[in-house]
């Protein structure tokens, strides 16, 4: 078929949609010289008419034509409104496997809507006359092929980043001129909204672009009054020159004056407005990008406020909102179908009665008339059943839609509103699906009613709260435009007073802040670790926080734990059904996990992603994402169905979070020394001080100078750092007698300590802040210490000379026998430590916490830490472990410091460990590569075999077979832990 023949045939056609649609499509295939569905796919699995008809109870399918990976195509009759057809395709896009093109046609027009993931939308319309043009035919063929040649080249995120970058530059310039950051942000919010409103057809065609173009031709001083005039019209509605401006209101266009601009500012605004279609701004990231661009306005930055990308938000919104509500709709839809089936059956029965009556009248009129009363009674009863069934279907639809419109979502730390925006779109998408399903079943459907009233927010920072409102206004209007719902009630911007600007945790008088009753709580509360609370929030606030939430949240917990606890309170009080939160993954361990324990114990923890990378720039963290409450479709861990889900976000049958601390392990392991200032000096300086004459008190500097090692010194090579340590009992006067070290502390430590929030740290400025007295009391009896980095990719245990001071990033076990070393470096303890510990940082490295990993770990019977090593040194089990451990250590040391590459040199004064130095520069370069991290990354065969020998010896000490799985090890160790704890051991 030629284009001319196609155009002639379909210009003249008066056929209805059902009569014409398939023939129109087949003719189109012939004209374009592309295969028809039957030619390309006889089975109809990839390319077919009426896709989804069998799954929706017969009749119309999800699309009139569907080709996998290419398009969904929906027809309407000539001159019909194609918006409803597009809404149907959008509603069933996932069922159609999300094709890149959604096509609607009324036989005279073919309108292609691009549907590529993460791109701006593009609309391409073809009329019959267009089909005479070869380039237009080529574009249609690309749709049939699913070609990406029509794919828009810019994503909504890139578009949004562009406006954020430019307006960020403008914002900083305005602030440099002395304007308050909030005034700058408010002005730019209004300008950005105007750009969006112009391209979304909410403002008259080209109004904002024309206005800013004219501003460039006038003195810059006139720009602000012109903006004021436009904003005033948007505030109240009316004439702006020759243009009619809608009533926007909403609080965004208040009476605050526009800011004075310079000529370059005006040009930037005009060029940005004219450059793109800003109706495709991505509200889910707009606030984040704008915040980043206007860094000077970010009061929340110090509180660890970060923002989540859309894909991560959906990992919370889907299980907490979308899936439960869609399950409810599927139930409602089944009931509606059943009611309509009952009505159809009644109508069929009515038809049969009438046909039988007609036949009886033809056969014997007299007899037929005699039965008329009974027939009328039967028909009345049938009509009642039919009407009742229809009413039941309508009532069920109305019940669901009313419930959906009344659904409320709260984000109690809403930031710039990205969670609420995605939640709002989810609710509106569910409503659209319900309306399309109902319409296709023949029901009259009401206008959509899900709106901004469905979302609520709490945000402490005024600017972020306004950003949230702008995000939601744009997101709501954008959804309506993209789904072809025409017309807006005025005012266009409804009030968003439910986005409250206040503290979500404390009232002004220090009492606990209350959250409104809602259906769902979502969000990502501020990322602020427990150790930074006072720096970020101030002493007074933190003391009030601790006092108010005493008994609910441990004082050692991260800030986010308060939001978890409050959300759980709402769920327990039935003032919220479900909650879904994004937090740093440290919530899975330590004190923060205490607020998750009761949730898991109640069986209410239903969704968890334990460790997700944080994609946004500047946030060097990993996140956990989780949901709790009732009404979830199923319990899931990492996107898969899970039988168990514990508060550490593990799904093993053994819940190690319930392990108890054992008395026999108490007061053995300690965190290393926390110096709290620049007490450390280089080895070169330390050796100079060691060579100095005796001090006025007759004592050498060696009394207060020690070699110092942190975690990196152990996993890499020693940095040769030393530390000044006056101990925890030495007075300031006595410390001053060590003249040179004291002068260093006075100059480099005291100024910093004078600014410390803690009085004790300020007053005792010459002392380390946490000298670990318990550790220091045990050290004199030991020749060496067993240390492990608090955070490390590999769980390593390393010997450290007892004369060296370990830093707080090392966990120190005050046992110096090879058997204890072997047990702790075995696979059994490593598996336990990984399960019972926590995780840290963007690398998600395991963290070793003494209270949960060491003090809960059950050593082999008879080899426990409370028994002196001398008491079990004759035990064959201990001897086997010690031999394997000593051999492991010997081999490691030989690899780290080969005798041909190092020389041993005594320290400059007695009483210190010998120094290990390279024999040459070439040896030094090689030694730099020889670190424990590199060794365990490579894990050569000899190292693996040494660990296997050690693991076999430890397994035998437990009386267990070698080769147990990790789950089996955890199960056995947990049973031992519970048994010993019950026995008071």
Automatic annotation (TrEMBL):
Its EC number is 2.1.1.72. It catalyses: a 2'-deoxyadenosine in DNA + S-adenosyl-L-methionine = an N(6)-methyl-2'-deoxyadenosine in DNA + S-adenosyl-L-homocysteine + H(+). It is an enzyme of class 2 (transferase). InterPro entries: DNA_methylase_N6_adenine_CS, MmeI_hel, MmeI_Mtase, N4_N6_ade-DNA_methylase, SAM-dependent_MTases_sf. The keyword Transferase applies. Residues 183-253 form the MmeI-like helicase spacer domain. Keywords: Methyltransferase, Transferase. Coiled coil: none annotated. The keyword Ribonucleoprotein does not apply. One of its GO terms (biological process) is methylation. Residues 391-599 form the MmeI-like DNA-methyltransferase domain. GO terms for molecular function: nucleic acid binding; site-specific DNA-methyltransferase (adenine-specific) activity. PANTHER family: DNA METHYLTRANSFERASE A, DNA METHYLTRANSFERASE YEEA-RELATED. This is site-specific DNA-methyltransferase (adenine-specific).
